[in-house]
Specification:
The chain has 10 helices and 17 strands. By secondary structure, it is of the alpha/beta class.
């Protein structure tokens, strides 16, 4: 570590890494030391593009090759946004090199692969964390408080989540998320990781007993060995009777909805992954009241809006900055927190079970940790 800052290497010049360049820059306890890509020129182009948008004081070094970056002794942690199909080997190599690991989602091709990845991190006493940004928003803490106050929602009964976007033609023709070799879970990996995680959050990370998954449509770009899910729905059934449904799609325009229903009310978030632009995040608690008197039937709206002061993006208190600030603190402490790897594994377990169900005629699949 250097001057109380976690020194970062970025493995790959993926688009999402541009956002996280800024997150590390703003974190206050992290700095980017080097960026590696398949060629040094590609790594340098990434650095130049990011520097022109969000300049840093100490310019990172461009490296042509991932192994060279992992061998450096001035790198404490690596951010790995490589395609899921390539991720396992590099996470394990990074852990064996003593580097803490921030892993993009979905974390792995399979539960077995993720267990190997997490095992390597634990054996080498390095932090493992996935890149789900909303987990680090102050809004989630407020949501937890309201869910557990006993009055706003009462007993939780139903969870519903949607996350989708309508992909343009160029995405469908060429994006890695339409290649079974690079991103075999398609929309379930790219979007379902978020919806499944939100259901687990609402249930205090209890695993469902059983899941059902249904692939609604599939497609693969020309060089894809097989098609991937383009539109998918799933159902999670928990031991206490709570059910959770989710919908993900590359074919439906932007939506990122959470609806939590209980015996006394319900909660709605319409921007749970990428908050609406602004300096406040919010969610609604709805406690409607129905009354019938003679021929008069009345439904009264009783809505409380919870506002949280937090910028939506590219700010020191934005969720993506909090993600890296939290990670940096754990890396600097030398005491990895296993909560983060455990919740990643639980998300992967549920996702894999939903995909297994869909491949077998949407039969129910039992979930095991």
């Amino acid at each position: 570590m250097s001057e109380g800052r976690c020194r970062w290497g970025i493995l790959g010049a993926a688009e999402i890494a541009r956002k996280n360049w800024d997150s590390i820059r703003l974190s206050g306890n992290g700095v980017i030391t080097a960026v590696a890509s398949r060629s040094q020129n590609r790594a340098q182009q990434f650095i130049d593009d990011c520097q022109s948008s969000r300049p840093v004081e100490d310019l990172p070094e461009a490296i042509g090759g991932y192994d060279e970056l992992l061998q450096r002794d001035d790198i404490d942690a690596v951010y790995i946004p490589l395609p899921t199909g390539l991720r396992k080997d590099w996470v394990i190599k990074a852990a064996q090199a003593g580097k803490h690991v921030m892993c993009e989602k979905p974390c792995a091709v399979s539960v077995a692969d993720l267990k190997e990845m997490i095992g390597a991190c634990r054996e080498n006493n390095v932090q493992f964390m996935d890149g789900v940004m909303y987990m680090h928003s102050k809004r989630l803490s407020e949501l937890r408080n309201v869910l557990e106050d006993g009055e706003s929602v009462g007993q939780l009964k139903r969870i519903q989540t949607h996350f989708s976007f309508c992909a343009p033609e160029e995405f469908i023709r060429g994006n890695i998320r339409v290649s079974s070799e690079l991103e075999p879970q398609g929309c379930v990996g790219d979007l379902g990781w978020y919806t499944i995680r939100m259901s687990l959050f609402a249930m205090n990370y209890e695993l469902p007993q059983q899941v059902v998954g249904r692939q609604l449509s599939q497609y693969g770009r020309e060089d894809s060995p097989s098609p991937v899910p383009m539109e998918f729905s799933g159902e999670l059934l928990f031991a206490n009777g709570v059910s959770a449904g989710f919908y993900n799609s590359f074919l439906t325009e932007h939506q990122q909805l959470v609806h939590l229903s209980g015996t006394k009310g319900n909660i709605t978030l319409n921007d749970f992954v990428l908050p609406w632009l602004g300096s406040e995040l919010s969610f609604e608690v709805n406690n409607a009241a129905f009354a019938a008197t003679g021929c008069e039937f009345v439904m009264e709206k009783h809505t409380t809006i919870h506002n949280i002061s937090e910028y939506s993006n590219n700010a020191a208190d934005a969720q993506e900055t909090n993600l890296f600030r939290t990670f940096n603190s754990l890396a600097l402490s030398g005491k990895p927190d296993s909560f983060w790897s455990d919740v990643s594994l639980k998300t992967q377990i549920v996702m894999d079970a939903c995909l297994e169900s869909s491949r077998n005629g949407s039969v129910p699949v039992e979930v095991h940790y």
